[in-house]
Amino acid sequence: MDTTQDTQEAHAVAAFHALANETRLRMLRCLVAAGREGMAAGDVARAVGASPSRASFHLAALAETGLVLSERAARQVTYRVDFAAIGGLVAYLLHDCCGNAPEVRRCCGLPAC
Amino acid sequence: MDTTQDTQEAHAVAAFHALANETRLRMLRCLVAAGREGMAAGDVARAVGASPSRASFHLAALAETGLVLSERAARQVTYRVDFAAIGGLVAYLLHDCCGNAPEVRRCCGLPAC
DNA sequence: TCCATGTTTCAAGAATCGTTGAAATGGGTC
DNA sequence: GACCCATTTCAACGATTCTTGAAACATGGA
């Protein structure tokens, strides 16, 4: 039996794994900075100092978890952060994982629930 | 040269790595549920269905990143979540990584900045 | 001291992950 | 078609991580 919780948990584990790498975390920050416009794969690669194949490998890993989306436009592939997916991860950490513990919320400058 | 940002980033990568494992994520949730009282290592092990050595390995990994703290009391070792550390990670994701993007905050039921 | 309990350490092996460079693919221009 | 540019795929290799069971360590009680 596979409960909703198990699925959520597996998804969270995958997302955390995606963020548990310096190259990927830097890529994500680049893409966040780029906003809704997104960035071409090659530009991300240059920005983080990764070879094309390395960049492709890590961008694919980010896309695999749904944290970023990709879209081909002519020759280039544009990657774009899925802000809702990141929000979902933060929500998981805050609500499901930490039960909205006031002390956690306080650390983020958030009002208690 | 090692900037503050690099240190922060390295710390975040380590924390995400700690959460990127089913056993450890379950342990963390157990410990959050246990609150300030914490839980003995053996109880955590039973709760997540891990052998003593496996539990010790993963609890040590969590402690290594500072997400949990340990304290020996008599024969037992009590593990306790460091709520501030988790809050710090959420804050990193929300502020440093996502620049407080309104769309991310909205997904967590947070007011825009 | 001897024994029982709780936890950590260790070594060995399997599995997963990340890097590299070369080759392949997709798509535009001449 | 021939050519170029952007990206992905692939195979090989090294590095890291996880699991397992046995042994060691720490502590308290008989």
Q: In short, what is this structure?
A:
Chain A is built from 6 helices and 3 strands; from the N terminus they run H-H-E-H-H-E-E-H-H.
List the helices and strands and how they pair.
The structure is a homodimer.
Chain A: H1 4-19, H2 22-34, E1 39-40, H3 41-48, H4 52-64, E2 68-73, E3 76-81, H5 83-97, H6 102-107
Antiparallel strand pairs in A: 1-3, 2-3
Helix pairs in contact in A: 2-3, 2-4, 3-4
Chain A binds a DNA duplex (30 and 30 nucleotides) through α3 and α4.
What features would you describe in this structure?
Two copies of one chain form a homodimer. Chain A has 113 residues and is α+β, with helices and mostly antiparallel strands. Chain A has a domain of 79 residues: Orthogonal Bundle (Arc Repressor Mutant, subunit A). The first copy, chain A, is 63% helix and 12% strand. Chain A is built from six helices and three strands. Chain A has a three-stranded antiparallel sheet. In chain A, a hairpin with a 2-residue loop joins strand 2 and strand 3. In chain A, helix 3 packs across helix 4. Chain A is globular. In chain A, 32% of the residues are buried. The model of chain A has no long low-confidence stretch (mean pLDDT 94). The interface between A and B is large, with 40 and 40 residues. Chain A binds a DNA duplex (30 and 30 nucleotides) through helix 3 and helix 4.
